[in-house]
Design brief:
290 residues, alpha/beta, two-stranded antiparallel ribbon, 10 helices, 10 strands, 19% strand, globular
């Protein structure tokens, strides 16, 4: 596998940390991680994907703002989907690529579909891993949602975070959340995703503001308008054992995509790229080469 490199992309003064594999050539594959995840979470998948190509692929994985080693928003700021989409555009511009192959997991899938719907000519292939947007809400849900957000930001702010005595304790928490993770994988993710404070305690690198309820409801009707504008081939990947599989509001979104195919990874939950990176790489490799 080609050596891992790092770059910092500027997003109106906010530093976005990116991992990068391979040398610039052709359409890069840009990977957008999910909620409270980080670019490092793609590493096993990237290793599998690179092993299936004769020439090293150019792959870039940014840490979304407020995640991993990217910057946090300043005082009074918050995190909204348009902010993430803007950051993705900054990364793509920094790469100097006219077109990209785009992949997103969960929250990253939502960011990816919004980008591909807003700029359909810039995406040559799109892979959505458990990522066709959050569960749809209705207009009457909006007032209570806004009130909840304001209340939680006042009550929790950036003080709502867990502290651990060791990195190993954080790794055990990851395995409680996702029992499919091996001890080694969990420890690797914990080392990459945690930092030590002045008191010697360990905490996750993501901004605790993410623990508050987002103020803007997600509407299926709006998502459909983005999805139907996507012109490139789309691969949707689901985990057979994911709780997302029980959702009933996704079919309208699938139907809106003009050129779409779906596949399901057996014995995988929501974190497919970590549960079964090899099987996911098989599906993605065949799709991007087609």
């Amino acid at each position: 596998m080609p050596p891992l490199q790092r770059r910092i992309v500027d997003a109106l003064g906010l530093p976005l940390h990116c991992l990068e594999w391979g040398e610039p050539a052709g359409d890069p594959i840009v990977l957008v991680h999910g909620f409270l995840d980080m670019a490092h979470g793609w590493c096993s998948f990237v290793a599998s994907l690179q092993s299936k190509s004769r020439e090293p692929r150019w792959i870039v994985a940014p840490d979304c703002r407020g995640h991993g080693d990217s910057g946090w928003v300043g005082p009074g700021g918050y995190y909204h989907f348009p902010d993430y989409v803007f950051d993705l555009d900054c990364v793509i511009r920094a790469l100097g690529a006219e077109r990209i192959k785009l992949m997103g997991h969960s929250m990253g899938g939502t960011i990816a579909l919004l980008y591909a719907g807003a700029f359909p000519g810039r995406v040559s292939k799109l892979v959505l891993i458990e990522g066709v947007g959050p569960a749809g809400m209705n207009f009457p849900d909006a007032p209570a949602r806004l009130a909840t957000w304001i209340s939680e930001v006042h009550q929790r702010g950036r003080n709502h975070f867990r502290q651990y005595t060791t990195v190993e304790a954080g790794a055990r928490q990851l395995r409680q959340t996702n029992p499919r993770l091996t001890e080694r994988a969990a420890l690797d993710l914990a080392h990459a995703g945690m930092k030590q404070n002045a008191a010697g305690k360990w905490a996750w690198k993501f901004d605790p503001l993410h623990r508050t309820a987002a103020p803007q409801p997600f509407y299926t009707g709006q998502a459909v308008e983005f999805l139907r504008r996507i012109t490139c081939p789309v691969l949707i990947v689901d985990g057979a054992e994911s709780r997302q599989a029980r959702r009933t509001d996704k079919q309208a979104r699938y139907d809106a995509i003009p050129n779409c195919q779906r596949t399901t990874i057996a014995r995988a939950g929501h974190m497919i790229h970590q549960d079964h990176p090899e099987q996911l790489a098989d599906a993605v490799s065949a799709f991007v080469q087609r």
